[in-house]
Amino acid sequence: MWKLNDNYLKLPGSYLFSTIGKKVNEFTEAHPEKSIIRLGIGDVTLPLAPAVIEALHKAVDEMAVKETFKGYAPDLGYSFLREAIAKNDYADKGVNVTADEIFVSDGAKCDSSNIQEIFSADCKIAVCDPVYPVYVDSNVMAGRAGEWDPKKEMFTNVIYMPCTAENGFVPELPKETPDLIYLCYPNNPTGTTLTKDQLQVWVDYANKVGAIIIYDAAYEAYISEADVPHTIYECEGARSCAIELRSFSKNAGFTGLRLGFTVVPKDIKQGDVMLHSLWARRHGTKYNGAPYIVQRAGEACYSEAGKAQLKEQVAYYMKNANTIYNGLKEAGYTVFGGVNAPYVWLQTPDHMTSWEFFDKLLNEAGVVGTPGSGFGPSGEGYFRLTGFGTYENTVAAVDRIKKL
Predict the structure, then answer these.
(1) For residues 228, 226, 245 and 210, what is the CA-based torsion angle, rounded to 10 degrees?
(2) Nearest Cα to 178, choosing from 210, 148, 203?
């Protein structure tokens, strides 16, 4: 008789974005005449850059010719893409990451979920609170998170590090020693960042206690301030304690293509065993890499034309985020983020809960956002809005919210 993995049954309720989708669908069915503006899920809205489209067409043509046809991708990814990443994202910033330490995948979300597989089930994780749900959920499924406490809305074996307005959304070093530390900067959902000096504190701490930092840098392209690091490897000692996750979804609009990569430095060792070798084995056994066509599209992002076009797209989304931030601040709301990330973190008015504000925004303004409580207990009383919509819809949404 087959058996379930009981750890899946420990996940509370439904997935955050599934609940949002259900509520929006019910509202739309009941009020088909009302227009909805979606500033919730972080999907992009601009079409792929011309340089990317050109590369896709060329790669498709290659697949139609015997001499240039490609089958399975190499385990780590094609060298042309890994070398472009190593040069542009690291070497050009004075950072030492080699092409063979880069593992190409179908996205940072998959990697952030899968990376925990190479660690022992009794490793203890620490997460910022609020946090992107995938970090905790994947560890729950692996049996690493303990039991769900409905009163505290926390798992018993997870170290939660509150990030609130009171501490500037910068987590304090945990009192209990973790084995794995998840950090995401620029942050999803709060839109806030760490300076290089603040991040160095975490690198020093991880090396001191023997922990691994899993660093999600999916929104790196949106950084505008000089003292905010673009990669954790700008910090001294990070190569011996940090894994970095990157994505092409937010900087290049690849949400429909799926492409990302993970950096696992060869300096991370336990005795004679390199973590790099274990991830390479896992990668080679369970995954054949993103398709050739998509990896050629990724390479095009590093061409001069590609870089210029992607910069314009990032600026477009940041203009939207600035519009939300400035518009709501002028209207008297308390807002954070919107400077180094396309997210604005809004404090709900009149002591409303996150879901109460969600319902009010949907029912009275026809605007969809994301309740902060869905990201963790410290997210209660907050609300996430994104700059990934169109500019016209963003302006209209801000006007609607101002009228509430």
Answers:
(1) -40
(2) 210
Whether the CB-CB separation of 108 and 216 falls below 8 Å is answered with: yes
Torsion of CA 200, 205, 211, 213, to 10 degrees: -20
Here the tokens at position 184 are 């995401």
- Amino acid identity, position 54: E
Tokens read off for 84: 């472009």
Residue pair 161/171 in contact (Cβ under 8 Å)? The answer is yes
Task: Give the pLDDT score at 288.
Answer: 64
Write the burial class of residue 175 (CB in 10 Å: 0-12 exposed, 13-18 middle, 19+ buried).
Answer: exposed
The residues near 276 (Cβ < 8 Å, ≥ 6 apart) are 101, 264, 265, 266, 268
The label of the residue with tokens 């009794």 reads: 122
Question: What one-character-per-residue DSSP string does 165-192 give?
Answer: GGGTT-PPPPSSPPSEEEEESS-TTT--
Output the pTM of the full model: 0.95
Classify residue 204 by burial, with Cβ atoms within 10 Å: 0-12, 13-18, 19+: middle
Summarised one tens digit per residue, pLDDT across range 210-238 is: 999 999 999 999 999 999 999 999 999 99
Please provide residue 378's backbone torsions phi and psi, each rounded to the nearest 5 degrees.
-75, -5
